[in-house]
Every structure is written in C-alpha cells, then in structure tokens.
Write a structure and sequence with these properties.
alpha/beta; Alpha-Beta Plaits; 2 domains; 5 strands; about 50% helix; elongated
Length: about 250
C-alpha cells in the first residue's frame, strides 16, 4: 500500500442491536428494575388465573412481557440518542408503563384480599368476589300450585341448585317446589364454568345426577318444570350419570 493511502477504512461498530440489549440488560439498573416489575406483574397474572378467569390471566401475562420489551427498547433509545426531545418522550412513555404495571399489581392484591375496587374485581372475575358483590339473599319461594306432594322418603336425595345470577328468581322457585316435595335443597350462585356439558344455552336448566339417584330424576324434572312453567321446555336431563362432588342431584340454571 502506498504512503499516500489513507489506510484501511474505519470499521462499523461491532456492537449490534442484539449486543446492545445484552449490554444494557446486564449493566443498567433501570433494566434490572424492569425485569423485577415484569416478574411481579407476571406473578399477578398467574394469581388471576388461580383466583379468577384464566383467559384474562393469559392477557395479563402477555401484556406484562410486551410492556417489558417496550421498556427495554425505550431505555436503549434513551442511552443512544442525542436528541433531548426524543429522550424526554422515551422517559415519559417508560414512566407511564411502569405506573400501569404498579397500579395493576396493587389493584390485583386488593381485589384478591378484600374484593376492592369492585369494578376491577368484576373485570378479572375473581371467583371469591362474584357471589359477594351486589348479591341479594337467596330466599326459596313457597310453592302454592298443585301437583307436588310431600314425601318423607325424598329426604334421602339431597339436591344442589347452581344458578347464574340472572336466574336467581327461577332458582328460588325451584328450591321452594323441591322443598315442598320433601327434598333437602342447597343453593349456590355460580358462573357454571365447571359444569361439563356441550349445551350452555342461556335459559337452559340442566339436571345432572349420580348413578344411585337416577330413579328420582324423572320426578325431580317434573317438579322443576312445574316450578318454572315458562321455561319448562328448556328443562333437560343430562344423558348419563355423573360423579357429582355435592348432592345426589344437581340442577344447573344457565
């Protein structure tokens, strides 16, 4: 090479965007804080999956990871851009995202412990709060019609009624009618997500039973139809016996 040559061309920086992220992630305390906040928010998402709706929990975990990546990108931009305006915007955006993270964590903790705030508890559908939020006392309605006779033998067939909140009036009518026939009845408000059935049509009344209670199902179905005459066509028996955790017969009101 001649002396007049200017020498080898200057090399491009060897640190790629990937290397820069690794460097920032290892050395920057801000990124470490981001990782901590994301970890806590992810844990809150898993808590929602246990206490409430798994679909909303998956969304919460996904948002946590996405926001974590966005925060890391904003931090890299703040460290590598000379524009004070752009750096200020990055800082503002990062502050808003971290604030959302912390707010979600605090709200999830208070909702899981004391069901407050109520709108947030409803939004994430915490099971422990569904039955205590704006619920009215369950009062079986006395059956005043005909066709039901008290039979002491029915005391050996306990019945559980699980109902969605919108069906509480029907559940109270059914409870009163079954009690008039001598059946011991317990009633529980539920979202019915745990019920195994292909038919979840709103207004459906599904009767499930243990094998030993099958002989009583026809009479129970008749009584349920008498108690809710306007919905009688939608009172159906599950085709096979089930391993019920509570009661010999369950009446599920969708």
């Amino acid at each position: 090479m001649s002396e007049g040559s200017s020498g080898p061309n200057p090399k491009l920086p060897e640190s790629s965007v990937y290397h820069e992220f690794i460097k920032v992630g290892l050395e920057d305390p801000f990124i470490r804080g981001i990782v901590g906040v994301v970890a806590i928010a992810t844990a809150a998402g898993f808590a929602i999956s246990i206490l409430g709706d798994p679909i909303r929990a998956a969304l919460a975990v996904g948002l946590s990871l996405m926001f974590g990546v966005i925060l890391a990108v904003l931090r890299v931009l703040m460290n590598n851009l000379n524009s004070a305006f752009v750096r200020g915007l990055c800082f503002l955006a990062a502050s808003v995202i971290v604030g959302v993270f912390l707010l979600m964590i605090v709200l999830t903790f208070t909702a899981a412990t004391i069901c407050w705030p109520t709108p947030y508890s409803r939004m994430i559908q915490l099971r422990a709060c569904v039955t205590t939020t704006d619920s009215t006392p369950f009062t079986p309605s006395a059956y005043t019609g005909k066709g039901i006779t008290l039979d002491p033998a029915n005391a050996a067939t306990p019945i559980y009624i699980f109902y969605r909140r919108a069906r509480q009036p029907d559940a109270e009518q059914i409870a009163g009618a079954l009690m008039a026939g001598g059946y011991p009845v317990q009633s529980v408000e539920s979202d019915l997500n745990e019920v195994v059935t292909d038919n979840r049509t709103p207004g459906l009344t599904l009767i499930k039973f243990k094998p030993e209670a099958q002989p009583a199902t026809a009479e129970v179905q008749r009584i349920v139809r008498l108690a809710t005459p306007t919905r009688a066509p939608m009172v159906t028996l599950f085709p096979t016996a089930s391993a019920l955790s509570r009661g010999a017969i369950q009446v599920d009101l969708f």
